[in-house]
Amino acid sequence: MTPESYPTARREETADILHDTAVPDPYRWLEDPDSPETKGWLLGQSELFGRNRGPQRFKSRIAELLRSGSVGTPAWRGGRHFFSRRTPDQEHAVYYVVEPDGTERALIDPMAIDPSGLTTLDAVQPDKEGRLLAYQISVGGNEESILYVMDVTTGARVEGPIDRCRYSPIAWLPGGEAFYYVRRLPSSEVPENETQFHRRVYLHRVGISTEEDVIIFGEGLKMTNYYGVSVSRDGRWLQVSAHEGTAPRNDLWIADLTSSPADRPELRVVQEGVDGQTGLLFGRDGRLYVHTDRDASRGRVCVTDPAEPGFETWRDLVPEDPEAVLSDFAILDDLERPVMLVGWTRHAISEITVHDLESGDRVGEVPTPGLGSIGGISERPEGGHEAWFGYTDNTTPPTIQRYDARTGQTTLWAASPGAVEVPPVRTSQVVYQSEDGTDVRMLIISPADDTPGPRPTILYGYGGFGLSMTPGYSASILSWVEAGGVYAITNLRGGGEEGEDWHRAGMLGNKQNVFDDFHAAAEHLISTGVTTSAQLGISGGSNGGLLVGAALTQRPDLYAAVVCSAPLLDMIRYEQFGLGATWNVEYGTAEDPEEFGWLWSYSPYHHVKEGVAYPATMFTVFQSDTRVHPLHAWKMCAALQHASASGRPVLLRNETEVGHGARSVSRSVDLSADTLTFLARHTGL
């Protein structure tokens, strides 16, 4: 396609001078979604996408594979347990309660609340007795959670709506009469461009107006702080944590609620100003269990006395492993010899070990169904000998497994409810070297027939915020591989697959390592005969959208096609939109001269050059996205349409009434079908 084929996008001479550097921004006018010019341009892009969309080749197969449904790990409260399940024909998972006699009842069905499918269930938290349920819902993808409380027995709402509760934990006090939660200050009390920030921890008493809520914590601290809050099962200990944005470190305090009132807890420092992440579990045995990466990049579990919780008192119970990352633990104490189950990811593959609770000595392991990913390990809050955990892998829809510490056996407790025929695939994990010699791992999923010869391939990556790419059931991946393609997922630096050091090797001034790892993955796939550059597509979303945006501008010769979803692309102005101000601890800030240099060196929007033969590119963005504003993709799309000399299409799929996160199944199917169809067309599948 030629620039003449695209909707007209006016180029301005707009430029900022930052740290003696001219920063051009020819499409800044696209930052205003409400201007007639932007609306006209978006309409033109929508019409262009419609003309070039073509039949959604994969749609029916993706929908069929998603008929597996899903099931969630149970939360036990008293004699009841709570869980989520999506049946084959449901658009959203439904949240259920199961009574002690086995009677099952639906508590929250998003489609019953809103038949349009636009309402999502964002979070749930039963109280300690299982009598009340706090839940949060949002509409149209904006993730602006509204908090309600339900009586579990009757299903009646007893509280809410309470707004401004996005990302709020709920910490119930025993008895269900009150809870701690996190809420933003009213917009009337903060500057207009800061309404997404300024959180506080409150104490709320059920049935009392929120006007009476008491601020417990957060006054005078940074506006970008996120707060965590929890209360021990016996109600004695309050734990409050603070993260500056998404920083990989937190400050941590505890209060003894038996010696200070719930509305004025005397918080004592556990750690403050420390470069490490720490969380606490107050054990039923009176000990304090500490999960930390402080002085242990891959994590460890320590034990101490809650009366003296400072770092100097911590004693290693389960020390750092030289290869595996410690992700989770649970305590089973209704045994002659109480044990701790410890979850690990070893090079992105999950495992669970069993340790003596007193000494920490390893005494066994939990059998797991295969080489896959394990969800959170849960036990009964009052203690017991059983634990439940989620399991999935590349060909297994989510299941819930039950482990019995008395027998040492793992059994299937609940499977996803839909029966689907999963295509046979072959999965292998390979190690390749990045540009600086660092070993990087990659999962390659290919057709089981193992026919030699290069195939159309999708390379996927993320590489940020310490998030790990682990095996999981994916209708899109299976549909692609069943059609004859290869799907590769690489564990880039910036992720958490090898611990916090691995994350930090790909953040701030080290961000180029992430892109180098990705280019090296592509080169490995080509050099080993898996694919060719003419058959290689790349895909990434959010921070992964930044990844593929950098990849296509740094190595346009290496890739045939790109799908760039909900991306960050203008890294000079990203802090000014959405939740961007919370991410400068990951990327850096353009206000600082050195950090500006990091951002300027790779910011994809600013590295689009006229006359370069760029890959076929499709941007997918979501109009209600309140995390990453779609303006990033709009500006980059206009720049590429103006500049590319390859004749390959640059398209924008701009979707309304959805956001960055959860969506209905049918909307997910449509998006996946469009992206796979585009990649197939331009990689020759």
From TrEMBL:
Residues 474-684 form the Peptidase S9 prolyl oligopeptidase catalytic domain. Its EC number is 3.4.21.26. It catalyses: Hydrolysis of Pro-|-Xaa >> Ala-|-Xaa in oligopeptides. It is an enzyme of class 3 (hydrolase). It holds the Pfam family Peptidase_S9. Residues 7-414 form the Peptidase S9A N-terminal domain. Keywords: Hydrolase, Protease, Serine protease. Belongs to the peptidase S9A family. This is prolyl oligopeptidase. It comes from Nonomuraea purpurea.
